[in-house]
Write a structure and sequence with these properties.
The chain has eleven helices and 15 strands. It is of the alpha+beta class. The chain folds into two domains: about 1-160, Aminopeptidase (3-Layer(aba) Sandwich); about 165-370, Cysteine proteinases (Cathepsin B, Chain A, Alpha-Beta Complex), CATH 3.90.70.10. Strands 8, 9, 10, 11, 12, 13, 14 and 15 form an eight-stranded mixed sheet that branches. A seven-stranded mixed sheet has the order 1-2-3-4-5-7-6, with helices on both faces. Helix 8 links the parallel strand 9 and strand 10. The longest helix is centred in the C-terminal third of the chain and has 20 residues, at about 255-275. The radius of gyration is 23 Å and the shape is elongated. The protein starts with a strand and ends with a strand. InterPro entries: Acyl_CoA_acyltransferase, DUF3335, GNAT_dom, YpeA/RimI_acetyltransf. Keywords: Acyltransferase, Transferase.
Length: about 375
C-alpha cells in the first residue's frame, strides 16, 4: 500500500462529505462548499488516497484531504482544512497532505502559508511545528464549540531579510463603505493610548470624511477628511497626494454629483489649511512610504482592488510591515466567507504588485494619510 496525493474531482465530493462528517463533529464543510472549492480558481482541493493492488486490480481509498485558499492579488495562502480518516492515522497521510499543500501554494507563487488549529489538538500542533510552522497569534472562541484556535504560519519561500513590522490591531469595517474609517481606527488605536475604537465612531469618522458621492452608492472617504478626523482624535496627520485636482470626480457622470464632490474637495482643502494639517503634493514612491514607516509613521494608503477582486474599486488599507520582496498590509475587509481576520492581517503583497495597486483610476492617483505622534 502507498499514499498518493492528487487533485480532487467532482466525483470525489460524496466521499469528501462522508469523510468530513466522520472526522469532525463541528465546523464541517458542506457539500456546496466543497463543490465551490473545486470550481474556484482561488482554491485548491487535494485528496490523499491509499492505493492497494488486489488480484491485479488497483483499489483507491480516500483517506484524507486538504483545502487551500489562495488569496488573489497577494502572496498569502491559507490552509483552511486538513482531515485524515481515523483508520489511516499514523501512516503519514497528514504529512503528505501538508507537503503537497505547500508545493501547491508555491506553484501559485505564494510566499506565506497560514492556518488555524485547535489549541487542544496537540498532535496536529506538533506536526506543524515539526515542519517549520510558528505560532503568531491566538483566536478566542474560533470554533463552533467556542474552543480557541492557534494561528500558525510558515514562510514557504525564503527571503533574504526579516520582516520589519509594527504592532497593529486589526479592525473589521462595519459597512461596505467604511474601509477608510476602519483603517484610520487601526492607526489611532496603535498610536493614541486614549483612543477607543468602536462602531459608532467608525460611522462618525465616515460622516466627517465622506466625499458624499462616488461612482455609485455611498461616497467613500477623502484623504483630507481622514487626516482631519485623525487630528481631532489626538494624532498628528499629514496627507500625501499626487494631484491637486478634485479627487474621485472622473467616475461621476451626474453633473450635480460631480459638482458636490468638487465642492467637498475644496472644503476639505480649506479646512486642512485652517487647521494646519499639511498636504504634500508629489508623486510618492514606495521608498518614500517605507522611509516614513521606518520613521514611526503609520501610512493609510488608497489602493485599487482590481488585482484582488477585479472590481477597480478604491479601498483603504494600512501599511503594517515590509521585507525585501513584499509589502504587508492590514485590510479591514474580509471580502468573502473564505477569509477570516487572520487572513486580513499582515497580508503579503509583492512590491511590484503593490506599486501598481497604489495607483487608482485613470489619473493614476496616489494618496496616503500618514499618522504619527509627533
Amino acid at each position: 500500500m502507498k499514499i498518493v496525493v492528487r487533485n480532487a474531482v467532482s466525483q470525489d465530493i460524496a466521499e469528501l462529505v462522508q469523510l468530513e462528517n466522520t472526522v469532525f463533529k463541528t465546523d464541517r464543510i458542506s457539500r456546496r462548499s466543497f463543490r465551490h472549492a473545486l470550481n474556484s480558481d482561488n482554491s485548491a482541493l487535494l485528496m490523499a488516497c491509499e492505493i492497494e493492488e488486489r488480484d491485479g486490480t488497483v483499489i483507491e481509498s480516500i483517506v484524507g484531504y486538504s483545502l487551500l485558499h489562495l488569496h488573489q492579488g497577494t502572496r498569502l495562502a491559507r490552509l483552511y482544512s486538513l482531515a485524515v480518516s481515523h483508520l489511516a492515522r499514523g501512516k503519514g497521510v497528514a504529512q503528505a497532505l501538508l507537503q503537497a499543500s505547500e508545493q501547491e501554494a508555491l506553484s501559485k507563487n505564494k510566499i506565506v502559508l497560514r492556518l488555524e488549529v485547535n489549541e487542544h489538538n496537540i498532535p496536529a500542533i506538533k506536526l506543524y511545528e515539526k515542519f517549520g510552522y510558528r505560532k503568531f497569534g491566538h483566536y478566542d472562541a474560533y470554533y463552533e464549540d467556542l474552543s480557541n484556535a492557534l494561528r500558525m504560519q510558515k514562510r514557504i519561500r525564503h527571503l533574504s531579510q526579516e520582516r520589519v513590522s509594527v504592532a497593529l490591531p486589526w479592525i473589521q469595517q462595519g459597512t461596505p463603505f467604511t474601509c477608510g474609517p476602519a483603517s484610520l481606527q487601526m492607526g489611532l488605536a496603535a498610536l493614541v493610548k486614549s483612543y477607543m475604537a468602536d462602531p459608532d465612531d467608525e460611522l462618525q469618522i465616515w460622516r466627517e470624511a465622506t466625499t458624499i458621492f462616488m461612482t455609485s452608492g455611498h461616497g467613500g472617504c477623502h484623504p483630507m477628511g481622514l487626516a482631519l478626523a485623525a487630528k481631532k482624535r489626538g494624532a498628528v496627520a499629514q496627507v500625501w497626494l499626487s494631484d491637486k485636482s478634485p479627487l474621485f470626480v472622473d467616475g461621476v457622470r451626474d453633473a450635480l454629483k460631480k459638482d458636490i464632490v468638487t465642492r467637498v474637495h475644496s472644503m476639505f482643502a480649506k479646512e486642512c489649511d485652517d487647521k494646519q494639517v499639511p498636504i504634500r503634493y508629489f508623486a510618492m514612491t514606495l521608498s518614500d512610504l517605507l522611509m516614513a514607516f521606518d520613521g514611526g509613521a503609520i501610512p493609510i494608503i488608497l489602493i485599487s482592488t482590481y488585482r484582488m477582486d477585479g472590481k477597480k474599486a478604491p479601498h483603504w488599507v494600512v501599511l503594517s510591515g515590509y521585507d525585501d520582496q513584499c509589502i504587508y498590509v492590514h485590510d479591514p475587509d474580509p471580502s468573502s466567507n473564505e477569509h477570516s481576520s487572520v487572513d486580513c492581517q499582515y497580508v503579503p503583497i509583492a512590491r511590484e504588485d503593490f506599486e501598481k495597486m497604489s495607483r487608482f483610476g485613470q489619473t493614476r492617483l496616489q494618496t496616503a494619510v500618514l499618522l504619527s505622534t509627533t
